Amino acid sequence: MVRARRIWVTAAALLAVAGASPGAAVAQGQPSSESAALTAAADGKLPPGWGITGGRSASQQLVWRSDRPVPMGDARVEFRSGGRLLGIPQPAKDGRTFRLPLDGQHAGELRGLQVWSGGRRLDGRGAVPTGSAVQPPAPLPANPVDPGKPGSYRTKTGEYSLKSVRLPGFSAPVEMRAVVVAPTGARGPRPLALFLHGRHFTCYKGQDITGDWPCPAGTKAVPSHRGYLRDQKLLASQGYVTVSISANGINGQDWNAEDGGAQARSSLVRLHLAQWADWTAHPETAPQIVQDAPRADLSRVLLVGHSRGGEGVDRAAMDSLYPPPAAQDGYHGPVRWTIRGLVLIGPTVFGQNPVPDVPSVSILPGCDGDVSDLQGEMYVDGTRGVSRGAALHSAVYVIGANHNFFNSEWTPGQATAPAQDDFSDDPQHPDPVCAKRAATRLTADQQHRAGSTYIAAAARLFLAGDDKVRPLLDGSGKRAPSADPARVLSHAVGGLRDAGFLPDGGVSVTGAKLCAAVDPAPAKACLGQGAKGSSPHFVQWETDREPGRHAIALHWTHAGTPARVAVKDPVSMAGDKALTLRLFVPPNSRGTRLDVSVTDASGRKAVLGKVKADGLPGSQSTASYWAREIRVPLTAATRAGLDLHRIKSLELTPRSGSGRAWLMDAWGWRPGLPAVQAAGLPRVDVGRMTVDEGDSGTRTYQVPVEVSGQGSGQVRVYVFDPASGKVTNRLVTVRPGGHDIDVPVEVKGNKRYGQDVSYDISVKAVRGAVVGSYRGGITVHDDDPAPKMTVTPVADKVTEGQGLKWRVSLSEAVDVDMSAFFLAVAPDGTELSTKDVSARWLRDTTGASPDPERPLSKVSGGLYLWENIPAGKTSADITIPTVKDRVRESSESVRFQQIDEQTGKPKPGGLELNGTVLDAS
Length: 921
Hints:
Distance between the termini: 46 Å
Oligomer: single chain
Structural class: mainly beta
């Protein structure tokens, strides 16, 4: 438990803590009326801005309050301690305060408390941007086919609204509303593109926006689903039927969903697809706009998801191939569609378990201020080795793009509701890459045009099968002129890549370091200390270290020292045209030169060629350590007589004087795309069970895990110990219907009041498996009654210069800290003033000065006391030190009333602290 002896909270913070809601209410452009923040204890137990509330174990919460509004967005706000994830806090209505229940998972001292969101730390100011202005890289050669050009069809737009639906875990119904844009005059069935927006504010009135659902009377729903109309119109002009669906009902309720709402979004997507399947079979039942559109060809479906919508459509693709557990799902009908591809725009990937056998394009915005770590890269990296590897998984890095401007309803000047630029920039210290006037930053229109172009490229590749657009997406180094002046880069895995050198695949490395993507030890971590910015390849998951995630780090001080990567068993590159590498160098660096060589199993070696690598434009605020795709022809190996069926090692020899580079992987490559067929795989879903502690005896429960599907595969299971905070992991082979993931939880009953305790596990796919619900466990509910709390005066009538003292006692010792809030209120008679108490005590308690002299109940923001009784103890004392003066005066009094922390008001019938101070003269 947290052993903070005293933490006092200002009135504004307490009231903020009292009123929580799924989303923040923020008046755009207006300063918060609640200027005070949580203050740390005088003994420094918690950092500034942090506190703990709760006189009952069920309501004890760790609270952090920001000094500036935290907009409702797609990235999760996370509390971390010592690098490990504590949990996902609940936001309050003020848009600044976040609170996390302190269940048994957080036992022990909380050290190194931090608040993170999307790879960006929220508590404490970031580093001041440094460096001169950055110029964008030179434009790539134009691709012969430009998918951003409008097609020949005129378009028609309309909307439909159906009966709302209920989804598991959500109390309020979710809307079934969408906007359709379709071509007119197109013959025959047409492919369908479905768009799903991300997590954004849900309701607005004037300049006020909230995350409520349903929207309160007098407010309107934010039309986020209308934000992709330009993308829809471009696709419709090219002959696609498009529909963009609304998900405000999920956004307003997903704050407490263990998966961030991914399963709910999947259910909503599939409910809409099921409606389209019904309308295809029975056109006369369809809404008018659907009747006016060409018939949708549901054997060719593209899903486009923005932010949490990206994770939602990825889950929908998984659920369409590998059905989820019925109890977790909101759709229970047949699958009458085939999802051919995904476009994921600035996506979240909380589970880091992408569906491996559905092709995808992840658009990564270089100036993303919401999902700042660009975790969507895991939709590429996280698919390697999981299944057959035939599906192309592409990452498209858009230099200078932010998160919001891909949606016009999230864009200032275009949106119906209040909107903002999500990249927060300090005008006094503008970011060299992402500031509004930076040469690399895109305008809203430039960014949206680039997004439309690359969505259309994915549609043309995945739905129409046009290989001429593939070079825009697979790292071939081509550009679409319609996206100009945006600089858009790509790399990929899958497709016709084979024979990989994967750092995670058991390679041996000499002349370089096999580094850990995620590890708290700088000597082991790939970036370590001194990195200016971050890498999308190394985003953190649920733990502070992850086995099986590696890269190869090169660091040289003079040219000519090779880094060699050897595989255990020789790989075949026969029939491949080139060796393709995903490699990055530090941001803003130029001209890193390397020789690339391969050696076959008999020892023959060939230098394939010389390559040059430049870093992306980057700053301390960007995730610019991102791999470029570099290809070298295999011609030299063939000329030298190497056996391309048995390649044993790869060498990178620096030709620059000094430098650094990181190799993510290397593959044999040839142009084109293979046919993709989803493998029959086992699917793992973790559930959550809540059990009562009981009064006696010991019972053992199993964490609920369901394995469905076909075949067998490997997953890695992480088990979190709530007592120590330590995490253990193991590889497990799973089979449908089996109980291979065996995590027993022993529950000992007692009659002592305590906290609920969560025993959690997380699961990640490794090979030959998919994971849906990745997180769950056993929650042990403490079912014992709370002890009675009383106050006994110890020294409630003293002479000035002595301390007033009261003892707060419990009727019995319990297993958790117990605490109570008290607020100074006006007593009967003359009140003790700010100059009658220790100035230091007053400062430590409230941050206020004794001057000007005023009654204690009139201290700005209120004078709050919070006394904590540690677990196992039955009492604690509250002391107010008074001071002796030379003024002859009558006796003075003080009165504190217990506060109800859920309302922020005096608790009816609550405890009181009353005291009298007599004149000493």
